[in-house]
Design goal:
Number of helices: 9
Radius of gyration: 20 Å
Number of strands: 9
Structural class: alpha+beta
Oligomer: single chain
Largest sheet: 4 strands, mixed
Strand order of the largest sheet: 4-5-7-6
Length: 199
């Protein structure tokens, strides 16, 4: 489980030198230091379970979520997370993997997030619709719907069958909150192609 330095030192209070005992536990592999002030007691814990504790408030989104939902085929080598009003991207290299954090608009941040529980942990992850909108928000603007379609299905390699399962109403509603060119185009694209996809 995740523990802060203060929590561990309190648990080790019976030792004459709790900090020294903590250092020994780290060397023994009983505790793994994630980042400064944060430890994990299970070295086998899946990295995505720790993302929200490393930097937040945040939720898993972008490439990690898209891959997890089968929307993109590539294996993702980092845990990608959305934040708000942090102003700049953050990267953490840890024994559990690489964590990337970047902003989405504050207004849209709390929308379409799911709370998941696993192995006595809980974590936050975007719905498939939200993850796709978040991803489009981070990319350089395209000029028209033809370019947007190429961005979706050629560049991002979105799976057409999985895309067809997304909720069109949710996508359209989300698009309006980003105030970004790609999302405006995407909203028009959804409307124009609604008859082509069983959304």
């Amino acid at each position: 489980m995740i523990r802060t330095t203060e929590m561990l030192l309190a648990e080790l209070n019976d030792y004459a030198y709790p900090a020294n005992k903590l250092n020994r536990l780290v060397k023994q592999g009983t505790c793994t230091k994630i980042v400064r002030g944060l430890y994990e007691t299970d070295a086998r814990a899946p990295g995505y379970l720790l993302a929200g504790s490393i930097y937040g408030p945040s939720y898993l989104s972008f490439d990690f979520a898209l891959a997890r939902y089968g929307l993109i085929p590539e294996a993702v080598c980092a845990f990608t997370c959305a934040t708000f009003e942090k102003k700049k991207k953050k990267t953490y290299e840890t024994p559990f993997g690489r964590y990337l954090y970047q902003d989405v608009p504050a207004q849209v941040f709390p929308m379409e997030i799911m709370v998941q529980t696993e192995q006595n942990y809980f974590y936050l992850i975007a719905t498939p619709e939200k993850a796709l909108c978040d991803k489009l928000y981070t990319l350089s603007p395209v000029q028209n719907q033809k370019q947007l379609e190429a961005l979706l299905f050629d560049d991002l390699r979105i799976d057409p069958d999985e895309y067809a399962k997304l909720d069109r109403k949710t996508l359209t509603e989300l698009c309006g909150y980003y105030h970004a060119a790609n999302l405006k185009l995407f909203s028009h694209y959804i409307g124009r192609t609604a008859h082509e996809h069983d959304l």
